[in-house]
Amino acid sequence: MALQGPQKTVLQLVGVVTLMGALAWASVPFYSWFCRVTGFGGTTDVAETASDVILDETIRIRFDANTDPSMPWEFKPVENVMELRIGETGLAFYEAYNPTDRVIAGTASYNVAPFEAGNFFTKIDCFCFTEQILKPGERVLMPVTFYVDPDITTDRDAKYVHRITLSYTFHETDLPEDYAALDSGSPEQTTVN
User: Fold this and answer.
1) How far is CA 20 from the centre of its chain?
2) What does the alpha-carbon distance between residue 164 and residue 155 come to, in Å, rounded to a whole number?
3) This model's pTM is above 0.85
4) 97-139 pLDDT tens trace
5) In whole angstroms, what is the distance from residue 67 CA to residue 161 CA?
6) In what order do the strands lie in the sheet with 104-113?
7) Cα dihedral angle (50, 51, 53, 59), rounded to 10 degrees?
8) How far apart are CA 24 and CA 95, in angstroms?
9) Mean pLDDT over residues 11-26, rounded?
């Protein structure tokens, strides 16, 4: 049985809507994968161990800290600039302070500039991989362990990079249930596991 006029149009429209929905659903994971693989948009690489090659050539790393306009934390790098040999493991700290009278959860987004360096800036450990929760008046130091991959010196575009900026922006997120109960001042719960 062949579809006629309005039935054929409805079927085509349903197909287009389904295809558009599938593309929208897949776009975020695909874009994330693309950025991780290519370093596009300043997305960094991630490793579990330090580099086994350390060059005599150095590179300057600048640390930048920002908060979303609605995030009440104070957030800053402890050290603004660090110079390392390429391949050497670096350890930097950022400081966050919650000046409010409530528990606040936050997550950090990050990028690296220039974008050509993103694929060569490798994080070993970072506070951005987990949600951070600060109690009222709490101040914490958050470490970032990283290195710059020695392959940066042979990449067609990145070999001209001599300074890299690692930038974080903290955004407020919803509190987990056990912290939300603590924040509401519930007398039954005074400690958080």
Assistant:
1) 28
2) 15
3) no
4) 999 999 999 999 999 999 999 889 999 988 887 899 999 999 9
5) 27
6) 81-85, 58-67, 163-173, 104-113, 132-134
7) -100
8) 37
9) 72
Tell me the DSSP string of the chain: ----HHHHHHHHHHHHHHHHHHHHHHHHHHHHHHHHHH-GGGPPEE-SS--S---S-EEEEEEEEEE-TT---EEEESSSEEEEETT--EEEEEEEE--SSS-EEEEEEEEEESGGGTTTEEEEEEGGGS-EEE-TT-EEEEEEEEEE-GGGGTSTTGGG--EEEEEEEEEEEPPPHHHHHHHTT-TT-----
CB atoms within 10 A of CB 147: 25
Q: Which amino acid is at 159?
A: K
Both tokens of residue 36?
């991780």
